[in-house]
Amino acid sequence: MRLIKTGLILMALVLTGCASQIQVQQADSWPGRENIEASAAITALVQQASTQRQEGLYREAIYTLERALRIAPNEPLIYQQMAWTRFEQQRLQEAEQLARRGISLSRSPAQREQFEILLDKINRDDT
Amino acid sequence: MTRKPTRSKKNKTTSRKRFGKAAKPSFFHRFRSTLIKLAITGLAVLMMLLAWVDAIITEKFDGRKWQIPAKVYASPLELYEGRQIDPDKLQKQLKQQGYQAVSNVRRPGTFSRQGNGYVIYSRGFHFPDGDEEPRKAKVRIAGDKVTSLRDHRGSVLPLLRLDPQLIGGIYPSSYEDRLLIRSEQTPKYLIPGLLAVEDRDFYDHFGLSVSGIARAFWVNLQAGGVVQGGSTLTQQLVKSFYLSNERTLTRKAKEALMSIALDLRYDKDEILETYLNEIYLGQQGRRAIHGFGLASQFYFSQPLQELDLARTALLVGIVKGPSYYNPRRYPQRARARRNLVLDVMVSEGLVPKAEAERSKRLPLGVVSRAQLDGNAFPAYLDLVKQQLRQDYDNQDLTSEGLRIFTHMDPLLQRQAQTSMSGALQQLDRKGKPRLQGAMVVTSAQTGDVLAVVGDRQSGYAGFNRAIEARRPVGSLLKPAIYLTALQQGYTLGSIISDAPVEVQGTKESWKPRNYDKKSHGNVLLYDALLKSYNQAAARLGMQLGLDNVLATFQTLGLNASIPAYPSVLLGSSALSPLEMTAMYQTFATGGFRAQPRAIRAVVNAQGETLKRYALEITQVVADEPMALVRHAMTGVMKEGTGRGVYRQLDPAIRVAGKTGTTNDQRDSWFAGFSDDLLAVVWVGNDDNTPTHLTGSSGALRVWGNFMQRVAPRSLHEPLGERIRWTWIDRSNGLKGRKMCDNTVRLPYVAGTEPAGSSRRCGTGIRSKPEVSPPAADKKESLLDKFKAWFQS
Fold this sequence. Notes:
The complex is a heterodimer.
Chain A: H1 2-15, H2 18-22, H3 39-54, H4 58-71, H5 76-88, H6 92-105, H7 109-126
Helix pairs in contact in A: 1-3, 3-4, 4-5, 5-6, 5-7, 6-7
Chain B: H1 3-62, E1 70-73, E2 78-79, H2 87-96, E3 100-101, E4 110-114, E5 117-121, E6 125-127, E7 130-132, E8 136-142, E9 145-151, E10 160-161, E11 166-170, E12 176-178, H3 190-198, H4 210-223, H5 233-242, H6 249-265, H7 268-278, E13 280-284, E14 287-290, H8 291-300, H9 309-318, H10 331-347, H11 353-361, H12 369-373, H13 378-388, H14 394-399, E15 403-406, H15 410-427, E16 436-443, E17 449-453, E18 471-472, H16 478-487, E19 495-497, E20 503-504, E21 509-510, E22 522-524, H17 525-530, H18 534-544, H19 546-556, E23 574-575, H20 577-588, E24 592-593, E25 599-603, E26 609-612, E27 618-619, H21 623-639, E28 656-661, E29 667-673, E30 677-684, H22 699-710, E31 723-729, E32 743-749, H23 778-791
Parallel strand pairs in B: 1-15, 3-4, 12-14
Antiparallel strand pairs in B: 1-11, 2-10, 4-5, 5-8, 6-7, 8-9, 13-14, 15-25, 16-17, 16-30, 18-23, 19-22, 20-21, 24-27, 25-26, 28-29, 29-30, 31-32
């Protein structure tokens, strides 16, 4: 059951084109065990935020992601999305802190790696 | 007595008449020019008067008509699969928000329930992130969790966001409150009913209505009392909008003049809409309820457009005398008035008789005072105001019609208040003053303030102990001392001394004692925190350097200036629960500073977002020392001063925290968190007299009561590539064995584990495990068992 659900989510993310920006993580790490039951809601919000971001509605995207955080406060994927949003806004300090927060909540090396990639980018932009 | 002058007057008139008749041509001739002059002057005065009246009228009517107090909203209830919610609490929340229970759900603002299945038709709402359309959804709940959420077609609905609950306003000194509506937003029968009862000729008269006055007189005569007033809506509006309440002829004349001027200048519909928003319709304490929009919320907790015929008729009836027909105080009177309004509507041909008769049999539908008070959260509002004042001045807040979106969670807020009131009632002692308490609850990971309790009594709007009461915090600051130590290279297994300690001050020396008045010799740093040893903490704090410890306080988010006296190590500083929340937030988030935030966004009257308060976090403590101190704080709950909590809480849920008790048990504190919630509790007496409580026997009881109600998420064990777990002999801090007495499994940063092994257990002491074995250690434990068996 769980596998089917995670598979579906992964597919949804790929289909909606999040893959290019979010760098979809391994199926076993998203969402976290405690958040699996709420995955439909989290996925919907993450997708909505992604659309808002693509339309340049950064403030709205962050608001939407905060709604997602309310549901799954320890979900690294949401922090990853927030960090990307801030990165695109060139609010690099905030992006970096959000990425760090994501790392501290990560449950696998693969997840951490995604954040390291983002941190690298931020540092390059910062200099 | 009055006859005499009358007669003399009469005589005078007759004589003047006679005289006048004879002298008429010459009189007219003589005074003609004066009369013309007088007439011109009179006309000029009248025109000036009209111009003056017109100026008064237009000034207020053209500009912004009212000062609209800011409205404050709670966080909206969101339903989704996996959402934890008690089905009864859901129903209570729906009722609180004025959702009507019906058998067939057909319009927004209604719901039906069958067992644990709901059909909810949500109201639409304009949120800072966009519009939420009304939505009909089927919700199934099992085991206090939403297991299925479908839309009206049966497809999976990821989320259902309800309209947010209105939790209060920020009022000007006049305490006049209203919720603006447009004429189109009124229910079907409101305007026709209002006109039928209050002013039938509204669209035909010129501001005053002669036939209206005559009719009212006739109706009242027939009814044997005042049923109808003779004032037009325009007059009523003028009276309420421009004039004082005095009953003088001059005022009456002014009212008439201004009504005519208003009618001349403005469109009838505009006058009507202004009336709908202006008219006084009720009172709640100092707060005056104006306009039908707010009155609908005030009496029915419903948006105006959702009102049925009976409720519409009641509002129309109340116009005549909001205090006389107060439906909460005089339900019989209000009912009779409502039914009279329904009769008038029938006789005017507005509604069919059968429908009116059906409506007459309905109860008033007014929400109780208790339910109304249940929507007031003054303690939380205090925090909202405090945070708003950093960015807005009072004038903007009380007049611009701003809408403030907050993080307040009404369900959690109610549970926090219930826990406080319930637990304190159990803790009260006969013959002693009633205990007081305060509590702040935030989201552990983000610092969103979810609930604030400022008094043991719910709805109390006075001294807010959560924000304003600063009391010594006792041992609540100790985790910061130990964190400083861990940052400086100590480990949880470091041995520190709990021997008596004396610190030389400039005037006198400071000799803190342990709570049990005993010294415990050399102890693990971990145990010193668990047992809250004062001597160990004071000595360690001084060894680390007072300045360093103070710097840690600040790093963690304690913004209050704390004097550099040694006694602050043991919490002699007076701080508020909110200030302690800011500090514990950093522990709860694992080293990231996130200010406690009450406000999400501020939106102006036009629906544009003025300001958002987005999540801002900054890492201030490195992961590893933070992970270690957090682990020690879970130890406090498992086997230290906080262990009593597991009498209330499921032992499978890991939580972390710290107790605090001050001299003579004047203050009882507890601050602690789960993976999702942080709560800080203070219990004590307002007059600062001693209680009979420690942090464990007082504040922790409130905290535990709350946590047990809300089923928090369990904390994770410290993770990370560099974390190593080792069994430690508690008596000497060396590596021990699980099977030995007095050992504990502790996390270390790789490379900091003790080098030597304790020989105590190897000398043939038969031992039993003190800490329940975690599943991951099965192998090791079997091996250890084997060894222990051999050794014994």
